[in-house]
C-alpha cells in the first residue's frame, strides 16, 4: 500500500475487474521491462487457477500474454 511510483523490472502485474484488491493495484503500469494486465470479469488470482472450459476469452488471452511475457523475461 502507498507507493504508486515504484520502479519495477521484469514484472507482470495482473489485475481482475471484480478483484476487491484491484483498486490498490497498478492498472496502467509501464516502466522498463514490466507490464500491467487488466482482466475483465475475473476475481483475485484467477489467472493462477487451473484452466477450465468455462474460462472467459479475456482470461485465456491474459494467461497467454502472461506466459509469453514470462518467456520473454526468461530469455533475457
If you had to describe this structure to a student in words, what would you say it looks like?
With 76 residues, the chain is α+β, with helices and mostly antiparallel strands. The protein has one domain (11-75). The protein has 1 helix and 2 strands. The protein has one helix at residues 57-75, and strands at residues 11-16, 34-39. Strands 1-2 form a two-stranded parallel ribbon. The N and C termini lie far apart (30 Å). 11% of the residues are buried. The mean pLDDT is 88.
Sheet with the most strands, sense and barrel status: 2 strands, parallel
- Order of strands, main sheet, comes to 1-2
Oligomer: single chain
Q: Give the low-pLDDT segments.
A: none
**What does the overall shape look like?**
flat
Portion in beta strands: 15-25%
**What is the overall pLDDT average?**
88
Number of strands: 2
In total, how many domains does the architecture comprise? 1
Note the gap between the termini. 30 Å
Work out the radius of gyration.
13 Å
- Summed up, the helix count is 1
Succession of helices and strands: EEH
Structural class: alpha+beta
Query: Helix amount, in percent?
Result: 25-40%
Organism: Leptotrombidium deliense
Family: Belongs to the peptidase S28 family.
Pfam families: Peptidase_S28
Keywords: Glycoprotein, Hydrolase, Protease, Signal
